[in-house]
Amino acid sequence: MSTSSLPFAPSYSCMTEGSGRDGVEALKRTALLADLLKCDVTSKEEKIFLLPKDQRQDDRSPKHRDASAKVILRYVRWAIEILVVMIVVAGGLRLLSTKTADHGVKRALSFSLHRSGGKLMRGGHRLRSFLRHMKSHPPVLSELPSDADSTLGVDVELERAMDIYCRGPLLHAVQMANVFSDSKHFVDMPIKDNSSAFDILVDFQRRELAMTDYRPHAHDTHERLLRRFIDDHFDPPVELTRRNSSAGATDKATYVLNRYTSNANHPRPESYREDVLVAADIFDRTMQMEGGNAAATERHKDKYYNNVIAAAESGWDFSSRWLRDPLDMKSMVTTSVVPVDLNAIMYRVECNLMEFNRHLGNDVRAQFFERAAARRLEAIDAILWSEKHKSWKDYDLETDTHSTIVSVSDYTPLWAKAFNSTDIDRLKHVVTSLKSSGLLQVGGVQTTTIFSGQQWDSPNAWPPEQDIIVEGLLAVNTTESYSLARELSQTWTHTSLTAWKQTGLMFEKYNASEIGGLGAGGEYFPQFGFGWTNGVILKFLTIHQNLLLAE
């Protein structure tokens, strides 16, 4: 493993240029000297006797006196070597303790020497004792700054955590060794109470677990070592939360809407392996397209990373909504799409904030959110409404056209009440459009009509979307919409109950093409539990029980 793998934990090779090997040999001779000082000194050519005190000055022969002089000279030479070794070690410690790492973490350098120093201690336990003494009496330890003194002004613990979960050789090794079938598994694993980010990074370097050459199915031993390392430092996964990013999208009339975007330029930590492999394919393909221009190829790869991160932030990871070619993940264009559902959600949030502030007597803030909601409603109508489809549609900024994908998200403005309730004709057209869309299936409302193999496409039906459609139809408040809401709520309850009777479990998604069928597709196996599935069923059984009881 190279010394640059973890910038805050350099190896002993940085003591002095060219002096490391000589220093090791001198340290070994130091250990031998300790033995010589305890016993008679015997050599191949001569033997030196330790004489009684009263005979040492008068009774020794010239031969004995010459031999004694040689021994003394030998001891002096060895003593000089010991002094040189101590100077070299002290100098190395000082160099390590004062050399600043990438993030200004000076303390880590000193401790990393002590914790990873075992490889230099092969000469015996006397050398270990010597270095333990040096550890307990470091020459400049008191001069080392604390983490809070970092001249770069960064959160050191956060940077260390990012070196574990978001970037660097540890994440690369774990994900590319295929330690877990789901790449998200590792980045959801919290650090054990008896460990720390610092301990993990130092131990990772000490065990030399970094991968420099990824070859699938060729690292079984390395995988086992990584599993042992992970078990030592991490607890089982816990759920993490996501936060949506947004950016303005405008046209000549200056309407402001939101989209999902990212400028991270790196793989998703939770799906690292999958992203790296797809990006590698993009790299090979675009190298030919760009005539070997590596910089242009890197931009294509970074663009893919940003699009895939944006898609994950949407919650719809993944769907044909984000793909130029529904069957090709490399064609992802998420950041170019203005999503209907995101802006419907934003509209409802702005309306809720208006109401909250009004109830609290914050009239100024209430008026602010009222104006924001009004502007968004106008933009939704101007940009996202498609007269051709009689529904709202995602808008593609690159092609300046509406999406041709038929999606359940097209009808989320009904749930958000982002429509003119007095325009009865339009609302009737929307309900008719939904009924003829192909989304309504025997087992529920499928996500899109495109069968791509992605989990947010046909034939999967997701509980939140069932609730959104039912709520939207009730908001339309016509006889036809109420009848359809009743039908869909009964269908979904029947599907969930049938699947539960067959498996004893509630699943995150179901197959809309059959009653009780389980969903599939995507980057991981179908999950059971399940929060939103239980929530939607409970809502139908309580708040909307009249829909279930109606004929």
TrEMBL record:
InterPro entries: Glyco_hydro_37 (IPR001661), Glyco_hydro_37_CS (IPR018232). It comes from the Eukaryota. Pfam families: Trehalase. One of its GO terms (biological process) is trehalose catabolic process. One of its GO terms (molecular function) is alpha,alpha-trehalase activity. PROSITE patterns: TREHALASE_2. This is Alpha,alpha-trehalose glucohydrolase. It comes from Phytophthora cactorum.
